[in-house]
Amino acid sequence: MAKNFKWIQVDADTGVSVAREKSKSGATNPNLSGLVEQFDWGQYKYGTADNSVSEDTGNFIFELSDAEYIADIKGKIDETVRNWKVEIYEQEKEVRKQNLSGYSDSVYASASGYKYEAATAFLSSATANAGLTTEANLRGCTVTVLANKIKSNHEAYITKDAQISGLRGLLYDRIAGVGINSTSVTTALASHAGIHTSEVVGSATTAIVGYYNPSGLASRFNCL
User: What per-residue string of b and e applies to 185-206 under the rule 16 or more CB within 10 Å gives b?
Assistant: First the structure.
């Protein structure tokens, strides 16, 4: 039966932990019988080794109970979830910058109501208000052309804004719903692996993105 261990890598020649001395020959896993690496968190790597192996706390090699191992897996999952909840809004901000910054201030203004309402009212009744008439005259176009531009830009902006919000919400809800099966080390490791699974999105244009990972937000939007 194997034991659980966590360790910091050691110098390839001396076997001394890199936490104790700077490595001169490169860092590697310690030479432990039957060592199988399964997981990492920060400087520490985790896994199992033969039952005959003993811990060496002075060299940063620690034996773990199943409960301790599971607790560390849960700790990393919780840390990842916290970071992703912040990152998803940073990703959303960047996607908005890339896809909405090209719209003029007039589009943002129309989003608040009056220009869009004036444009749609004119297109349905051919009755222009003073603002549309003045803007069209100074722009050198007809009120019809101007009204269609306002309507088209406003609706494109609203659509993109809603798409970005919807994708961000999708990922946030998934991230917020992440859990861990702590029945055993095996199920806990499977839970950790599960948050790093991928999916294919899009139809005409496709991309492989993380099912939970917020870094794929831009790719998701580009594949709509």
Answer: beebbebbeebeeeeebeeeee
